[in-house]
């Protein structure tokens, strides 16, 4: 058997082609073997099936990835296929969310991205060959030595968009009906397969390696959105990593923005809220019963920037210590730290997005411009699920560029001893205090007792805003039954402040939560707006109020018959009023503004002593006396 282009493995760090055709010759089957590097094709790829149909045309191994440069729809064609490995991270009782990097080429008469079936997955038996998986009718999949793989087809579902509200789950099974860009669920397998390829076992336990074989997806890929608030399961559709920030930014909001993306300014599309949600579950729960599931959704915000590390909050299904470690001996979940940096998505990773709640909603688009060559082990920025395959992570590093870390505070809100809701407050001078696409993240879980930031009357787990030490941030809190609550700051990242308080409006008390927990037991009910996050307590607030009050200079210019107010700090003034000694209001000016100087005519006022009251937009009140003299 002849290996055409096999020199790539040994001599060339990367390869680039305008177009690429790989086909058998008259006397041999041919293939490319891309190991630990990138293969770049500017245009389309034609693959012709080898005589030995078990031999693929292109192999992507050990972080080998394929990038293409087409700006429009794919013209990839032919009956041949590529082979790319990806490891799942669950056993037979838990889901991974997937998206296929390939589609089934079928007869090869149709160009472009087609559809995919899980029945085409394989278990590797060597670097070149795989056994096609057995699709079984039972509930529990399994694996065994020698590339034996039994996948339970019952658990293969899509979450397809419908016309408004939540989309519905759709069972796929073995059908060839998964479109490029669509996500799907698949449970893992029990057992082990010690078949070793390039030093990595097929399945040392709960991390089955799958061989995706088919036509490589390429170009513009569209996933339909039915309407406002729709929820859609999508995923990385390419045999390469993608810049998740770029994808989320381009598929959210409106207008054009310079966000540091590789192609320059980004034209935004009102397709999603710009937030990605990732399912995770307790690997120790060995049950197929829904009532036994222990899981939740991690949340990722790109903060409106292609180069940002982004903002990540954990799923809710465990309690965490002040250092962020899971309690109750749940050591497996400590690996969540390895996947909080989601700027790049690994091959095959599925995730949820939600359509915006207003405006004209358009379909989701994946593009080749979103693709980048990023290894999964590189700075933990491209990860699939929670990989436990040690050989795959041996070169991993936790070095993160501090300048790309968004300043933030994470808060933990624990409910009894059951679970912790983690929320993140991030600071960005370009954000607003309202809801911003690709910044603020709506709570995606449907939990009867939950908490978050109260924005636009809804529950948010990520709030991005400019930092203001005088801010008072109301919390959302709803309890379906009596709960013991424990609230504290989990950690600071690239940011610190002297104090963080939880203010209880009902008691008028400030509770420091920077180092200590605030404990309270509350009966069932909605307590939204009762509690606020602040950075100053009453003493701090009084000091600030005194400083602001003292900054105003108020005097009566009798020569010009006018009241003059100097505002050197540019404080935003809501109201200026003038009262006589009896308390009667003589002058009332509202929404005065933040100018440095104001004048008000007093020509019609009698000679007397008056009181001037100034009210700022933060409701800080200061009063001054003036004397109006006879100007005759």
Describe this structure in words.
The chain is mainly beta. It folds into three domains: 7-191 and 199-308 and 343-389, no CATH class; 406-536; 551-628, Immunoglobulin-like. Helix content is 5%, strand content 40%. The protein contains four helices and 56 strands. The strands form 17 sheets. Strands 38, 39, 40, 41, 42, 43, 44, 45, 46, 47, 48 and 49 form a twelve-stranded mixed β-sheet that branches. A five-stranded mixed β-sheet has the order 3-6-8-24-10, with no helix packed on it. A hairpin with an 8-residue loop joins strand 28 and strand 29. The radius of gyration is 30 Å and the shape is elongated.
Domain count: 3
Count of helix runs: 4
Q: Shape, please?
A: elongated
Strand content: 35-45%
N- and C-termini, Cα separation = 114 Å
Query: What is the CA-based Rg, rounded?
Result: 30 Å
Number of strands: 56
Low-pLDDT segments: 1-12, 329-338, 386-400
Q: What summary fits the major beta sheet?
A: 12 strands, mixed
Decide which structural class fits the backbone. Answer: mainly beta
């Amino acid at each position: 058997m002849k290996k055409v282009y096999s020199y790539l493995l040994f001599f060339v760090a990367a390869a680039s082609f305008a177009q690429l055709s790989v086909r058998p010759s008259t006397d041999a089957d041919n293939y490319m073997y891309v190991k630990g590097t990138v293969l770049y094709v500017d245009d389309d790829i034609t693959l012709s099936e080898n005589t030995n149909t078990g031999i693929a045309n292109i192999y992507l191994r050990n972080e080998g990835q394929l990038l293409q440069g087409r700006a429009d729809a794919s013209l990839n064609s032919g009956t041949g296929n590529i082979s790319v490995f990806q490891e799942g991270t669950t056993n037979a009782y838990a889901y991974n969310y997937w998206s296929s990097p390939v589609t089934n080429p079928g007869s090869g008469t149709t160009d472009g991205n087609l559809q995919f079936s899980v029945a085409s997955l394989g278990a590797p038996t060597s670097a070149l060959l795989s056994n096609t998986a057995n699709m079984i009718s039972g509930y529990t999949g399994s694996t065994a030595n020698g590339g034996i793989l039994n996948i339970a087809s019952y658990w293969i579902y899509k979450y397809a968009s419908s016309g408004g509200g939540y989309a519905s789950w759709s069972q796929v099974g073995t059908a060839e009906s998964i479109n490029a860009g669509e996500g799907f669920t698949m449970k893992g397998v029990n057992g082990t397969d010690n078949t070793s390829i390039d030093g990595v076992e097929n399945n040392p336990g709960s991390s089955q390696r799958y061989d995706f074989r088919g036509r490589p997806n390429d170009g513009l890929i569209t996933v339909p959105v039915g309407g406002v608030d729709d929820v859609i399961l999508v995923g990385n559709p390419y045999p390469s990593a993608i810049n998740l920030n770029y994808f989320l930014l381009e598929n959210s909001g409106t207008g054009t923005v310079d966000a540091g993306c590789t192609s320059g300014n980004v034209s935004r599309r009102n397709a999603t809220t710009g937030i990605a949600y990732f399912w995770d579950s307790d690997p120790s729960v060995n049950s197929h019963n829904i009532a036994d599931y222990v899981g939740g959704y991690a949340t990722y915000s790109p903060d409106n920037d292609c180069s940002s590390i982004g903002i990540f909050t954990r799923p809710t299904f465990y309690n965490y210590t002040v250092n962020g470690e899971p309690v109750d001996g749940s050591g497996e979940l400590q690996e969540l730290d390895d996947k909080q940096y989601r700027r790049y998505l690994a091959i095959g990773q599925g995730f949820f997005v939600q359509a915006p709640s207003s405006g004209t909603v358009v379909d989701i688009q994946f593009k080749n411009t979103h693709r980048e060559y990023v290894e999964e082990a590189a700075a933990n920025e491209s990860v699939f699920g929670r990989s436990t395959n040690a050989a795959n992570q041996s070169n991993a590093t936790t070095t993160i560029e501090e300048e790309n870390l968004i300043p933030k505070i994470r808060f933990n809100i624990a409910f009894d001893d059951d679970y912790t809701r983690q929320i993140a407050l991030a600071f960005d001078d370009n954000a607003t205090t309202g809801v911003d696409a690709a910044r603020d993240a709506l709570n995606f879980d449907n939990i009867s007792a939950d908490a978050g930031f109260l924005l636009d009357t809804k529950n948010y787990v990520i709030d991005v805003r400019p930092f203001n030490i005088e801010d008072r941030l109301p919390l959302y809190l709803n309890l379906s039954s009596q709960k013991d609550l424990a609230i504290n700051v989990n950690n600071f990242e690239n940011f610190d402040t002297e104090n963080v308080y939880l203010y209880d409006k009902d008691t008028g008390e400030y509770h420091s939560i920077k180092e200590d927990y605030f404990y309270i037991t509350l009966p069932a009910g909605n307590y939204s707006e009762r509690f606020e996050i602040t950075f100053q307590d009453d003493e701090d607030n009084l000091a600030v109020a005194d400083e602001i009050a003292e900054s105003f200079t108020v005097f009566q210019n009798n020569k010009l018959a006018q009241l003059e107010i100097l505002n050197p700090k540019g404080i935003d003034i809501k109201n200026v009023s003038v009262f006589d000694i009896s308390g009667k209001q003589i002058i009332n000016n509202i929404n005065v503004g933040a100018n440095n100087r104001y004048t008000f005519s007093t020509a019609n006022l009698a000679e007397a002593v008056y009181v001037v009251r100034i009210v700022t937009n933060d409701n800080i009140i200061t009063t001054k006396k003036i004397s109006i003299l006879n100007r005759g």
